[in-house]
Amino acid sequence: MKRCTWCNLNNPKYIEYHDYEWGKLNTDEEYLFEMLILESFQAGLSWQCVLNKREAFKEAYDDFDIDKVIEYDEKKIEQLSNNPNIIRNKLKIKASISNAKIFKSIQEEYQTFYNYLCTFTHGKIIYEIGKTTSTLSDSISNDLKKRGMKFVGSTIIYSYLQAIGVIYSHEKDCFLYKD
Q1: So what's the pLDDT on residue 169?
Q2: Is-catalytic flag, 39?
Q3: Are 86 and 58 in contact, with CB atoms under 8 Å apart?
Q4: 48 — phi, psi (to 5°)?
Q5: Is 125 left (phi over 0), alpha (psi -120 to 50) or beta?
Q6: Residue in 14, 22, 34, 39 annotated catalytic
Q7: How many Cβ atoms from other residues are within 10 Å of residue 9's Cβ?
Q8: Which GO terms describe its molecular function (predicted)?
Q9: Residues 13, 21: contact at Cβ < 8 Å?
Q10: Model-level pTM greater than 0.90?
Q11: Residue 8's pLDDT is what?
C-alpha cells in the first residue's frame, strides 16, 4: 500500500496516524482541542517529534481536559517545563494555557469550536494537495491571533485543518487519495 510521501514507514505511530486519523473529519471538541495544542507545539519542529510524544502530552496535560488546562498555575507550568517526555518550551507551555482559555471562550461564543471553524469553511471539506497555507488558514490564523492565541500561524493552522479533516490532502499515489 502506498502512503503519502511524508509518512515515515519506519514509525508505526506515524503509519497509524496517517491511515486512521489524518484527514478524517473529526468534530469532537476534545479532539479539536488536543490537536490544536499539539499542533502549536509543532512550531519549528517536525510533526513526528510531536506525535512520538503524544501519549506523554496526554498524561502531562490531564488528557487534554480543557477545564483543567485553563486552571494551570505557575507550579504546573514548572512541572511541565521540567517534564523530559514532552516538548519543554516554556513559551509554548504558557501559550497552551492561554490558548485553552481562548478556545473555551470561542466554544462559549459559538456553542462549539467546530461551529466557529464552520464560519470560515461553511461546513465544507476542502480537497487540495501540495500546500502549507491557504486563504482559509490565513483567515483562521488571523482571527485566532486577534483573539490572543499564540503559535497559531497560517502554516500551523493549515496543518491543524489537515489533522482534523477539514482539509483533505492525501497525495495522488496514496491509497487514501480522493478528489
Answers
A1: 97
A2: yes
A3: no
A4: -60, -40
A5: beta
A6: 39
A7: 9
A8: DNA-3-methyladenine glycosylase activity; metal ion binding
A9: no
A10: yes
A11: 96
d(CA 160, CA 44): 15
Q: Is the pLDDT of residue 179 over 90?
A: no
- Which position among 14, 22, 34, 47 bears the catalytic label? 47
CB 149 within 8 A of CB 143: no
Distance CA 3, CA 9 (A): 9
Mean pLDDT of 64-81: 98
Quote the cell numbers at residue 137. 488558514
* 71 belongs to the catalytic site: no
Q: How far apart are CA 156 and CA 39, in angstroms?
A: 6
Please count the residues of the chain.
Answer: 179
Report the alpha-carbon distance of residue 6 to residue 123 in Å, rounded: 27
CB 19 within 8 A of CB 2: no
In the annotation, is 47 catalytic?
yes
User: Which residue from 6, 1, 69 is spatially nearest to 40, judged by alpha carbons?
Assistant: 69
The annotation places the binding site for Zn(2+) at 4, 18, 170, 174
| Residue 41 cell numbers, joined | 507545539
Set out the domains of the chain in order of their start, with CATH numbers. Answer: 12-168 (1.10.340.30)
Whose cell is 500546500? That residue is: 131
- Kind and range of the H or E element at 116? helix 113-121
